[in-house]
## 1
Amino acid sequence: DKVEKAAALIMARGGKACAVACNVKHSADLAAAVERAAKTFGGLDILVNNAQEVPTGRLEQVSDEAFLAGFESGPLATFRLMKLARPLMAARGGGTIINLASSAGLRWDMSGYGAYGAIKQATRVLTRAGAAEWGREGIRVLTIAPHAESPGLKRWVEANPEEAEAFFRTIPLGRIGQLEEDIGRAVVALCGPDMAYLTGATIPLDGGQAN
C-alpha cells in the first residue's frame, strides 16, 4: 500500500510510476522488481537502495536473527541490486546508484549502535567498490547519510526522548531534514548532470552535524 500511494502521488504530479511489492531479503523479488521497472520504463537510469531492517540496541541485546536480517535487507540487498542494475545502466551509457547509510556508523560513542553502524558502514564500502569498478561504464555510485523525518526516526524519538533532544541540539541548522524538500531533492540533484564528476563519496545530508 505504501508504494501504491507513492505511485499515485507521482502520477498526480504528472509523472509515470509503477508500484511493485518486493521483499528485499529475497533475491527473486529483487530480480523481478528490476525487470519490471526496466520493462515499464525502457531501461534503468537510477537505483536508490533505501528499504531495510535495522538492528537496534546494545550488543548483548541484538540477536543473531536481527543482525542477520539487517545484513540481508541492507548490504546484501544493496549488493544484489547494484549487480542487477549494472548491465541495464551500462547499456544506456551509464547511471547513478544511491545507497543509504547513516552517521551512526561514525558516532564517537557507539553504545547501542554497534550492530546498526556495522551494517551501514558495510554499505559505504560497497559504494566505494562500485564507483571504482564501474566508473568507466559511466555508472556513478554514491552514499547519502541523511537525517530525515521518517517513520523510523519518529519511533526512535518516541522511545528515546532525552537522547533525541540532545541529538537534535548538535545539528547546526537546528532541525531534522524534510523527506522531500531536503533529502529527495538533494538525491535528484546528485543524479543530475551538474554532479556528473562526483562518485564514490558519502554525502552527509544532516544539517551540518557530520562527524
## 2
Amino acid sequence: MMSRFFQTSLLCGLMFLFATTTLCAQKKEATLRVEPTEVQLGEIEIRKIDDTTGRVKIAVWNDGTAPLILQNVSGCCGTDIKDYTRAPILPGKEGEIQVYFRVEPKLHTISRTVTILSNDPKNKEVLVPIKGTVVKNKELGRVAF
C-alpha cells in the first residue's frame, strides 16, 4: 500500500507535468491588427488638394506571441506603397505602412484598397479601404457640386 506522502507527491508531479505540457503545447502565433481599419479621408475641397492629400499612414500592430512578418503590401488603382516595416514586428510592437496616391483635382469619389499579406495564421490577408470624396465647396456642412 502506498504511503499518503507518496500519493500526494505522485499527484503533484502529475499535475505539474500536465500544466507544463499544456503551456508548451500553446502555439506561438503572430496576430495582425491595423489602425485604422478603414481610412476615411472625408470631403476634400478641390482648392485644398496638394501633394500631401494622398499620403496616408497605416499603423500595424502585433497582438500575438510570435514575430509578425509583413510578407507583401500592395495597393490598387495607382496606389503606391512608399514604404512599410520589413523587419519582423515583435509581439506588442508597432510597424507602419506609408501609402501615397495622387488625388485628381476633379469631382469624384476616392476608393482605394491596401492589401497586407502576413504570417498571421488567422488573418493572412487584410484589406484596408481608403475612402473619400472630392467636392467643389463645403459650406456649413453642405456639399455643393
